[in-house]
Amino acid sequence: MKPRRVRFTETANHHVDRERAWWLENRDHQNLFAAELEKAIEILALLPGAGTPYTQTAVPDLRRLYIRKLGCHLYYTFDADDVIVRALWGARRERGPTL
């Protein structure tokens, strides 16, 4: 099994920056954010089908992976070579991200 390359859209990068800043300002275990995000990226690279389909969007084949310790979902699409992370979004929000 060949790992896929994981790339982030500009929107997803903005979401990660915003969430990281919030995490560093409001949480005691500051290293947890980077560690959990890295684990999620590793999972997506090897097993992109691990996430669940997210159909409340116009983006075809969008999936999301729940990162329990962060309380966030990574929204992404994938093909044979790449995983494209499109958003990092709080799971407690009442709606998904606008993509």
How would you describe this structure to a colleague?
This protein has helices at residues 10-26, 31-46; strands at 5-8, 52-53, 63-67, 72-78, 82-90. The mean pLDDT is 91. The relative contact order is 0.23. Helix content is 33%, strand content 27%. It is globular, with a radius of gyration of 13 Å. The chain has a single domain (5-90), classed as RelE-like (YaeB-like fold), CATH 3.30.2310. The longest helix is centred in the N-terminal third of the chain and has 17 residues, at 10-26. It is an alpha+beta fold. It has two helices and five strands; from the N terminus they run βααββββ. Strand 3 and strand 4 form a beta hairpin.
- Write down the CATH topology: YaeB-like fold
Instruction: Return residue spans where pLDDT drops below 50 for at least 5 consecutive residues.
Output: none
Q: Element order, helices and strands?
A: EHHEEEE
Domain tally? 1
Q: Please count the helical segments.
A: 2
Shape: globular
Query: Structural class of the helix and strand makeup?
Result: alpha+beta
Strand count, sense and barrel status of the largest sheet are: 5 strands, mixed
Radius of gyration: 13 Å
The second-level CATH architecture is 2-Layer Sandwich
The overall pLDDT, averaged over residues, is 91
Strand content: 25-35%
How are strands sequenced across the largest beta sheet?
1-5-4-3-2
Q: Which percent bin holds the helix content?
A: 25-40%
